Amino acid sequence: MSDPSQRYARQIRFAGLGAAGQRRLEKACVVVVGLGALGSVSATFLARAGVGRLRLVDRDVVDLSNLHRQILYTEADAAGSLPKAVAAAAHLGQANSEVQIAAAVEDLTTGNIDRLLAGADAVVDGTDNFETRFLINEWCVREGVSWVYGAAVGAYGITFPVVPGQTPCLTCVFEEAPPPELSPTCETAGVVGPITGAVASLQAGEVLKILAGGEAEISRALTILDMWNGRVQQVELSRRPGAACPVCGAGRFPHLEAEAGSGAIRLCGRNAVQVSPQLGRAVDLAALASRLQAAGEVTRNRYLVRVQVEGCDLTVFADGRSLVAGTEDPAVARSLVARYVGG
User: Fold this and answer.
1) pLDDT at position 322 over 80
2) Which of 15, 39, 206, 219 could form a disulfide with 34 if both were Cys (CB 3.0 to 4.6 A apart)?
3) Residue 181 banded pLDDT, cuts 50, 70, 90
4) Of 140, 169, 186, 245, which one is the catalytic site residue?
5) Lowest-confidence range among 29-33, 86-90, 91-95, 278-282?
6) Active-site residue 245, yes or no?
């Protein structure tokens, strides 16, 4: 084991952290949900800072189109169809072998959130959809765990921390998800790499403050970045009074209490749809690969099976989820999965 006074010497010298703060980091557990552009950068800073345990949760695989902004990954990761959580864990382990890193190739749902977030001292939002963010928000408010929201599209990004009992929660700020027609995505508006790095850096900084005990310095504002025009804006946030917020005020958790079911959702920036089974089920990848040989050229690793069918790229994970790339139509995706994978 390396000498912390050497490895972390520069950050220990920073008065806001110090040796006591470093010891707190080493004892902490952080869960990063979503290992795309935001999550991979946040996880990089947290691993290098010496956070003792990192749990990396992501449902997707590395794609060539990710590499301009998801700087943790390589062309080899994309060519090997590695799950992002697995690739991230491998690279971060090489950067700091003393951090305990666990990879979960899963979609965060009501059915697994208690397991995947268990023991977290802080949670980082690297997701691309409000449904998952509302789920994280409700779990963290219920459990009293701080988390940091982040989003970026085009050259624009926003972030703010949620400290239960002290700051507004996500539902205080966004009572419901913006309608799709008013919500640009990286598929429709594109995204430039530096804005994702800027937002993720702010997220990681807030997590370090949370873990190191710097409560007075934790931001109470929503930070808005416009990288293209060089503008930074902060909007002070306040909790809704009394029970006006259904989550942190009234203690209702509708997303957590919703029953998990089957579904097909579009993935941001991927021209792809994820199809989830109604009940979690393990898939025998070897048997599936053998069966799909008749449909086309099959590639397989220990995490997934991939095949080209009917102009789409079909990827099936061991937990039963499927990604159908090449369509944004959920009905088309569900139909392909039903025909080639089964119900």
Assistant:
1) yes
2) 39
3) very low
4) 186
5) 278-282
6) no
For residue 214, the tally of other CB atoms under 10 A from its CB is 15
First to last CA, the chain: 49
Radius of gyration of the chain (CA): 20
Element (H, E) at 262: none
CB 84 within 8 A of CB 38: no
At which residue do the structure tokens 């025009």 appear?
229
- The alpha-helical segments, DSSP class H, found in the chain are 4-7, 9-12, 18-27, 37-49, 75-79, 84-95, 113-117, 130-143, 170-173, 193-212, 254-257, 285-292, 330-340
Query: pLDDT tens digit string along 247-279?
Result: 999 999 999 988 655 577 877 667 889 988 765
295, 288 contact by CB (below 8 A):
no
Q: What is the DSSP string of 48-65?
A: HHT-SEEEEEE--B--GG
- Determine contact, residues 78/17, Cβ cutoff 8 Å: no
Provide the angle, in degrees to the nearest 10, between the axes of the packed helices 84-95 and 37-49.
30
Q: What is the pLDDT of residue 180?
A: 55
pLDDT digits (tens, 9 = 90+) for 17-58: 999 999 999 999 999 999 999 999 999 999 999 999 999 999
Q: Is 268:187 a contact under the CB 8 Å cutoff?
A: yes
Query: Would you state the pLDDT for residue 188?
Result: 65
**Structure confidence at residue 269 (pLDDT):** 63
**What is the 8-class DSSP label of residue 217?**
G
pLDDT for res 267: 75
Contacts of residue 67, defined as CB under 8 A and 6 or more positions apart, other chains included, come to 73, 74, 75, 78
Please report how many Cα atoms fall inside a 13 Å half-sphere around the Cα of residue 23, on the Cβ side.
3
- Separation between Cα atoms, residue 315 and residue 337, nearest integer Å: 9
Tokens at residue 138, please? 């409700």
| Nearest-angstrom CA–CA distance, 249 and 254 | 13
DSSP 191: B
Q: Tell me if 226 sits within 8 A of 154, measured CB to CB.
A: no
Which tokens in the block code for residue 135? 């789920």
